[in-house]
């Protein structure tokens, strides 16, 4: 194998390696402040959904509490903490709104007159160093 051929092969390999590294870094990194998808099973998402649901229940005049049925979409944005942007379906439970009940112990209303689902958009701001989670926006519709 001649020197020219060897140089050509090494140049091609170096170019390929550089391309792989730069394309991987583009996939793994998004610009600061941009919104990105996050797993619905992420613990931060789960806490944000609970925070948003409690905010809904605190503002609701309904006789019963609601809790999350399904997380339809979850996104996050890094902004002086993490802002979770969530699309969630919540369903009325059998727990009274005056009980101060733990939602984990509340069962959903059975099908029938009291069965009601809301489609909600929650925005929850988490600042872990302050141990703070705050619902900054919520909008729900039947």
From TrEMBL:
Residues 30-141 form the Cystatin domain. CDD domains: CY (cd00042). Residues 1-23 form the signal peptide. SUPFAM superfamilies: Cystatin/monellin. GO terms for molecular function: cysteine-type endopeptidase inhibitor activity. One of its GO terms (cellular component) is Golgi apparatus. One of its GO terms (biological process) is negative regulation of microglial cell activation. Pfam families: Cystatin. Belongs to the cystatin family. PANTHER family: CYSTATIN-F. This is Cystatin domain-containing protein.
């Amino acid at each position: 194998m001649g020197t020219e051929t060897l140089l050509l092969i090494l140049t091609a390999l170096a170019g390929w390696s550089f391309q792989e590294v730069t394309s991987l870094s583009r996939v793994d990194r998004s610009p600061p402040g941009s919104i990105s998808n996050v797993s619905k099973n992420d613990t931060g998402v789960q806490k944000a959904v609970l925070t948003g649901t409690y905010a809904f229940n605190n503002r609701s005049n309904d006789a019963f509490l609601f809790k999350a049925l399904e997380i339809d979409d979850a996104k996050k944005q890094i902004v002086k903490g993490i802002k979770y942007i969530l699309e969630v379906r919540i369903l009325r439970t059998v727990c009274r709104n005056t009980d101060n009940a733990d939602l984990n112990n509340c069962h959903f209303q059975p099908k029938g007159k009291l069965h009601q689902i809301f489609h909600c958009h929650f925005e929850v701001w988490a600042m872990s160093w302050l141990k703070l989670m705050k619902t900054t926006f919520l909008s729900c519709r039947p």
